[in-house]
Amino acid sequence: GSYRILLAHSSRDVRGEATPTYFSKQSMPLHVHHNTTVGALLADPRTAPILQEVIEKAKSMLAPAEDAPGEAAAEAITEEMSRQMLLNSPLRAAQMFFGMSKAEIDALIEKLQKAVDA
């Protein structure tokens, strides 16, 4: 990540600054479980492709018909609100968001953990 370093005589007298960026070749450890958030998995390059595939498949299965009348709730909840709810949801919520069974979620968790451990 990037770090901003300020050289100062006091907080009101900053005399220099630098912004070094640190890159690590090591991946952060990750243990995937039912409470791991979708956002954490999408942020990790080892698990993002797997979960993105599941999300795309669920989107195509759950997409409403184009001629379906809009409901008040659908109009009240914006796409950004839905996205944030999904990102902050644990994997166990995949039953609700993606219509997955507990066995399917367990298999997904195993697949994600194998990707992390590879």
| Biggest sheet architecture | 2 strands, antiparallel
Give the overall form: flat
How are strands sequenced across the largest beta sheet? 1-2
Distance between the termini: 24 Å
Oligomer: single chain
Fraction of residues in H or I helices: 40-55%
The whole-number mean of residue pLDDT values reads 86
**Uncertain stretches:** none
What share of the residues does DSSP label as strand, in percent? 5-15%
Give the helix tally: 6
Succession of helices and strands? EEHHHHHH
Count of DSSP strands: 2
Write the layout of secondary structure elements.
Layout: E1 5-10, E2 13-18, H1 38-43, H2 48-62, H3 72-76, H4 79-87, H5 94-97, H6 102-117
Write up this protein.
The protein is mainly alpha-helical. It has a domain at 30-63 and 73-117. It is 47% helix and 10% strand. It is built from six helices and two strands. The protein has a two-stranded antiparallel ribbon with strand order 1-2.
